[in-house]
Amino acid sequence: MTNDTTKTATPVAEPLTLPCGVTVKNRFYKSAMNEALAGRNCAPTEAHVRLYRTWANGGAGVLVTGNVMVDHTQLGEPGNVAVEDERDLAMLRRWAAAGTENGTHCWMQINHPGRQSPITINRHPLAPSAGTVDGDYGRFFAEPTELTRDQIRDIIRRFANTARIAKKAGFTGVEIHAAHGYLINQFLSPLDNRRTDEYGGSLENRARFLFDVFDAVREAVGPKFPIAVKLNSSDVPIAVKVNERNGAPGGFNEEESIWVMKQLEARGVDLIDISGGTYSKPVIQSNDGAAEDRRRGVYFTDFARRIKGELTVPVALTGGFRCAADMERALGEGITQMIGIARPLAIVPDMPNRILRDGWRSTVSLPRITTGIKSLDKAFGGILVISWFELQMNRIGRGRRPDSRIGGMRALLFALKQHGPAALAPRRRKGHQ
């Protein structure tokens, strides 16, 4: 990274008031990454406390946690935290207190994986419909059981309960994960959702589960508590060379996404976090780091420009922001109101402070993650990237500094030591941020 620190005023420093009336102090939105730090029984740990205290004191306006699952028997990745009752309330309170230091907001991302739960950690996944995962990753997942109406109602209750506990613990908001091929995204997608009842068929029916979850969460936390929703612009990643507006053929597309966003706005959502892609069509296509960033720039900007005049609710645009100039340009164009950042904060945890306080104009260059063995890189490219960033977060959580010199082989061995064989199963490629 470069070292230009010429101080200038920046729109990233401006506060933002959300529809619920809550104000966040600046436009830095630390997007979710799976920390893989959960202890026994999917409990939060002291490492979560240290990691989020570091980020909170690094200057971000909002910190969004990694996946917190609403059911400990249905996990999306190794090391997920699960919150379904108050048994871990004391540690959740410590986590929330650390994440809200320095006037920071800390929002819990709440999720259910549906069929997207690796067979190494779950042989009995649940989904809107039966059927295997498409693509090369299908062999890593057990065929799910179709959810009954009673099970759907139970999951809706679980989302609301987890949100209630998050608020009680001191988290200052929640983000409902409705993207990346997890359960809510599965309901939205006609490729995954082949139901013939009130939760399948038309877009209105396929979106019913998300709306029921949102309404239940709103009732649980009240009108003045921020609720964000992470939503795919479409089920196709931007690296796939097809018409992005049409999405994955037969899947959830941009027209449908805009309709869902408008419905969420009418229901009182406080922020929409734009993303895209699924397991079978993941967003990130390589482990090339900065080289990939240069090829692709800031993600989902075309879609963000398209919805600029469609919505009044604040939007977070996540993926590809590596320097203040790109952040300021996006805010100046009005295509986003929050700057979503994830991977750079695992390397430079105080990046917001450097930009806001020190006038830092540098570019964070993400390293190319490689084991040095082409066959291993090809076999485990996506896992390698995720494991490398999990290792950096683990270092911060243990009170150490991140180290970008660490190689891919060490990251792979770290993942195996932490998670056993489950580490080698594909996980949602969150590393695109």
From TrEMBL:
One of its GO terms (molecular function) is oxidoreductase activity. Keywords: Flavoprotein, Oxidoreductase. Residues 14-355 form the NADH:flavin oxidoreductase/NADH oxidase N-terminal domain. CDD domains: OYE_like_2_FMN (cd04733). This is NADH:flavin oxidoreductase. It comes from Bifidobacterium callitrichidarum.
